Amino acid sequence: MAVTIYGIKNCDTMKKARSWLEEHSVAYEFHDYKALGIDRAHLEAWIDQAGLDTVLNRAGTTFRKLPDAERENLNREKAIQLMLEQPSMIKRPVLEAKGKLLIGFKPEIYAGAFGG
């Protein structure tokens, strides 16, 4: 089964998610979207499946530091452009596996998805 986890290497939540996967012998590929970037197709698919409010990390420092003008009247297209320019605005981790999309990390949700 192909499992890909997207996020940022030094994020504490990412470290917890990756540790959980390793402890439960779930092989995965890690995509650091701060180092490698992310493409529009992924962002659009994630938003289609999970919703903009789930994908966009409004609570994060990067989003909060934006000028008010950039945060106001935020629609799908504007949000995608911001996330392409600054991937730190994407909630993390984003995990694709078994045709499922998991955003954020909660051990019980990962256990449900992987039977661990």
From TrEMBL:
<comment type="similarity">
    <text>Belongs to the ArsC family.</text>
</comment>
<dbReference type="InterPro" id="IPR036249">
    <property type="entry name" value="Thioredoxin-like_sf"/>
</dbReference>
<protein>
    <submittedName>
        <fullName>ArsC family reductase</fullName>
    </submittedName>
</protein>
<dbReference type="Pfam" id="PF03960">
    <property type="entry name" value="ArsC"/>
</dbReference>
<dbReference type="InterPro" id="IPR006504">
    <property type="entry name" value="Tscrpt_reg_Spx/MgsR"/>
</dbReference>
<dbReference type="InterPro" id="IPR006660">
    <property type="entry name" value="Arsenate_reductase-like"/>
</dbReference>
